[in-house]
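Researcher: I've been going back and forth with a colleague about how Putative glutamine transport system permease protein GlnP might be arranged in three dimensions. Neither of us has a model we trust, so I'd like an independent prediction. The organism is Ferrimonas sediminum, in case that matters for your notes. Sequence below.
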Amino acid sequence: MQAVIDSLFTPIGNDGLIGGLLILNGLKVTLMVTFFAIILGAILGVGTTLMKMSGKWYLTWPANLYVGIIRGTPVVIQLVILYFIVLSSLDVDKISAAIIAFGLNSGAYISEIIRAGIQAVDKGQMEAARSLGLSHGQTMKAVILPQALKNILPALGNEFIVLLKETAVIGFIGGVDLMRAGEIIRSRTFEDVVPLFTCALIYLILTYTFTFMLSRFEKRLKQSD
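Model: Here is an independent structure prediction for Putative glutamine transport system permease protein GlnP. You can compare it with whatever you and your colleague have in mind.
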């Protein structure tokens, strides 16, 4: 018990910030990066899906290249390259760089999720709607996308949870997220168990909370059917 108190209430660094507050600040960074990155990823995912399904090579080719590069390289390498090389000449802070990097990464996966959800809808739905006089855009908006959303919702929820955990590598560019805060406390107090298990417990609580909220939302969608 004394080790827990010492780890969470010992001043860390020259500013006198105690370990517990450092973890809270790290948690705030983790949630902030995850929230804005998933929004950016959703926008990029929708745009990339539309490009891939446009049937025009000059749109399909760059979309496939983007998805292939992102899915074929580790997110930590993408983060480091973006911050230290691509954005090195710009005055971009670490949190913004992390949001961009994780947003780009998430966008590629969300694109594939959306594409798979749309293709899972029976083609007869499109043909029937078009035969009733609806345009392609009207059919996608009123018929295909609502059905695809229910198909892809679990996968989108999983992507959000995966993204939340992937943000633990922000420390590679010097950002102080939840995981990095635990590492700082561990290095300053020489106490390994409490800081690391505290971070693990917080991640566990967050993932279970979001999973529960997602399951409740899915049940409401099923009831609406």
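Researcher: What would you highlight for our discussion?
Model: I'd start with this: The chain has one domain: 2-224. After that, consider the following. Strands lie at 11-12, 17-18.
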